[in-house]
Automatic annotation (TrEMBL):
Subunit comment: Homotetramer.
Reactions catalysed: (S)-2,3,4,5-tetrahydrodipicolinate + NADP(+) + H2O = (2S,4S)-4-hydroxy-2,3,4,5-tetrahydrodipicolinate + NADPH + H(+); (S)-2,3,4,5-tetrahydrodipicolinate + NAD(+) + H2O = (2S,4S)-4-hydroxy-2,3,4,5-tetrahydrodipicolinate + NADH + H(+)
Organism: Helicobacter enhydrae
Name of the molecule in the record: 4-hydroxy-tetrahydrodipicolinate reductase
Alphabetical keyword list: Amino-acid biosynthesis, Cytoplasm, Diaminopimelate biosynthesis, Lysine biosynthesis, NAD, NADP, Oxidoreductase
Subcellular localization, as worded in the UniProt entry: Cytoplasm
Protein role: Catalyzes the conversion of 4-hydroxy-tetrahydrodipicolinate (HTPA) to tetrahydrodipicolinate.
Annotated binding of NADP(+), by residue: R35
Length: 254
């Protein structure tokens, strides 16, 4: 059985990942990292610790669905104690991304802002549609539950990056995340990324391609968070078989 270390155990995603691990005899939850001063009710035999080196020593692979601060600390700890890694946490800083790139020269890392199969496919479709409908205005709308802390969602940003890349654009130069007041006419290359928050919506992403006379909207709806947990464990199974490198969900599913 593959010994899995989990960062974010008590959270919405962490609880579901634990559930998926319990349902699959190929995996066992072996260690859980928690913030100092907090406590969790982990099953007997699981190492619960606020020390990253102890956490890493007790597992063969790490899965992280926590917060950018926790992910950042984990990445630093992995420099000393390398383990294959699956990161699902969103809202990471440019510094964390650079650290992840550097670490991926020595360990295999899957970084997936969304671990569902549908979103992996939506990314491919968005790439194709942005190229084929070259004159279309691209507007991405994401809707999530009111607990979500970061905006736009990591998934929306990945979709926007996909669209920008397919048109040879730099996302930083063309992204617009909200319009208010006398903003003027829409620029031709703009990629809008708009966030809505409310209720218990698990996650909805729509990539709209608006032309004169017609428009295409590609929409993904997540109806259960367990979809992400299952995808994350699929990525865990996959990443332990890989050489060092930085991978995404498309790599896992192919
Ligand atoms: P949550 O707030 O319910 O859970 C976060 C967990 O991380 C909690 O257990 C919290 O205690 C822990 N945590 C936070 N900071 C910590 C720290 N400094 N040290 C130790 N533990 C810490 O959030 P969630 O809904 O479970 O989402 C977690 C992350 O996963 C978010 O970034 C979210 O955007 C992302 N997410 C990704 C996907 C995907 O498919 N990749 C899907 C859903 C959510």
């Amino acid at each position: 059985m593959l010994k899995v270390g989990l960062l974010g155990y008590g959270g919405r995603m962490g609880r579901l990942i634990d559930e998926v691990i319990l349902e699959d005899s190929r995996f066992i939850l072996s260690s859980v990292y928690i913030r100092s001063g907090s406590s969790v009710d982990a099953p007997k035999g699981v190492c619960v610790t606020n020390d990253f080196s102890v956490f890493l020593e007790h597992c063969e692979v790490v899965v992280d669905f926590s917060s950018p601060i926790a992910t950042s600390a984990l990445l630093e700890a992995l420099e000393k104690t390398p383990r294959p890694l699956v990161v699902g946490t969103t809202g990471l800083s440019p510094k964390d991304h650079s650290l992840m790139e550097r670490l991926s020269q020595s360990i295999p890392i899957v970084y997936a802002t969304n671990t569902s199969r549908g979103i992996a496919l939506l990314n491919e479709l968005a790439y194709l549609a942005s190229q084929r409908l070259r004159d279309a205005d691209i507007e991405i709308i994401e809707i999530h539950h009111h607990h979500k802390k970061d905006a736009p969602s990591g998934t929306a940003m990945t979709l926007a990056e996909t669209c920008a890349q397919s048109r040879g654009l730099e996302l930083d130069k063309v992204r617009v995340s909200g319009r208010d007041g006398a903003v003027g006419a829409r620029g031709q290359d703009e990629i809008g990324v708009l966030s809505v928050r409310g209720g218990d919506i698990v996650g909805k992403h729509c990539v709209g391609l608006y032309c004169d006379g017609e428009y295409l909207e590609l929409t993904h709806n997540a109806t259960s968070r367990k979809t992400f947990a299952k995808g994350a464990i699929e990525a865990v199974r996959w990443v332990v078989t890989k050489q060092a490198g930085l991978y995404n969900m498309k790599d896992v599913l192919e």
